[in-house]
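To whoever is on call:

I kicked off a structure prediction for a single chain this morning and the downstream step that reads the tokens threw a length-mismatch warning. I double-checked the sequence; it's 221 residues and nothing unusual in it as far as I can see. Pasting both halves so you can look.
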Amino acid sequence: MRVHVGAPDRPLGAGDLRALLAADLLMRVAETTGSQVVIGWSAPEVPEDSLRALASDAALLGIRPPEGESTGPAEVLVVADGAQADGPEDAPRLTTGPVLVPEAWDGPDQRPEPLALRLALLGAAHRTPADLTGPVLAAARTRLDRWRRVVRESARAPSRPLLADETEAAFAGFEDDLDAAAALAVLDGMAGRTDLAPGAVFETFVNLDRILALELAREVG
């Protein structure tokens, strides 16, 4: 897989981070089938220090950064908004939409909690614009806190098999144009029900988090 980031007329930014997130999500989904995925990136005329800074920001969001510059053929292309892709025309291509961020993000102390940012981006269809307003990020943080509380409490119960219907619905979304919103809706649904075995809820949350990478079990223990 090759991720195309950067453009001659703008610095690297949240839109490029979103493309890396889409590639990370796609890789995680593919790995559940036993596939091995190697991600490289194409960033012509982008300074090396800017790429290192982007990789550092990506790591904060739980994104595995590309392994280096990709110059050979790629089976899948992921293209950030505004970036130019030079791969073969017949290669599957996923283009991410723009990201709108508040001007207050100019200072590092004003940046949002990284995994709340990851969740907010996952909740927006990757081809559409993502408007990361303060209320959107606050809602993502509330959602994260709620899910982590569910996982923490359900971890005390005996283990049970995954909830089949919920898992199937989540993966149906991933397979439908890499739609993560379906999986997020599944988590919301499980969090609001009292008729499900807590051990099954725990296992299903943790299994889906292998792909979502939101550290939902980090408060367990």
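Update from on-call: the warning came from a stale cache, not from the record. Cleared it. Sanity check on the structure: Helices lie at 14-31, 48-60, 114-122, 134-154, 164-175, 181-191, 198-212.
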